[in-house]
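Reading a protein record of the kind used here takes only a little practice. Think of the row as the fold of the chain written in a discrete alphabet. With that in mind, consider the following protein and its fold in token form:
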Amino acid sequence: MFRQESGGLVSYHFESFDDSLVNHAFYTRLGGVSEGHFSQLNLGGTNGDNPEHVHANHLLLFENFGMPFESRFDVWQVHGDTIHFTNSPRPETQKHQPGDGIFTQNPDVTLIMRFADCVPIMIHDPVKKVVGLVHAGWQGTLLEIGLVAVEAAAKEYGGDPSDFRVGIGPSICAHCYQIGTEVRAQFFKKWGIEAANFVSETPNGYFLDLWAANEWSLHKAGVKNIEQSHICTAEHLHEWYSYRKEKGLTGRFAAAISLTPKGKHG
């Protein structure tokens, strides 16, 4: 990934994504108007922050991203494996639909999701001109939402997963993500011996490697091109929000992706 500072905001971008075809960014917590636990660019609207600050932060993000605020499509992230396909933005008066994967073929739509340790997965199919965003916490990872999303998108748009470009964004790393015996048991019950590749036992307890687990699921779906950010949210609190490290008193950073509007480049 490469880091970019622009318009007072700091964002990260995948090197393997072609910016003549796809516009994408992971916005850090730097540069917004929120205060206290939520400082600065908090995009989460249900964690106790001032709603006016959250709205102002969204406007800053979309101005920086180069798309109108009205272009956004987002969902109520519920740690499941429901996937949505859209050809239009979400009207401000429309309630969020529950889901953890969103896709579009419309360059006038900006997909956006919020994170604070869970794994953001960005998907671009340059052949069928599709972009997608996926939210994978431990529950979504257990459900293999990456695989579910890739297979659903391939079916919806007639694409081939081997053409997809996929990126796994900033999220909590295997050294920081401790889990209990119940979560460990769920992985071994569903994944069998394969779970041993992602759940490690140390003198301090069990730890889950969300990065490797999601990459494994994506490869199972036929994806060949995967870029890992290798950025841990819990280890870099100066730039990212971490629900685990900050014990729930924190904001949410955003991942945004859209097809590059025709004529924007070249």
The helical segments are 51-65, 138-142, 145-157, 181-191, 210-220. Residues 2-173+209-259 form a domain with the CNF1/YfiH-like putative cysteine hydrolases fold (CATH 3.60.140.10). The chain has one domain: 2-173+209-259.
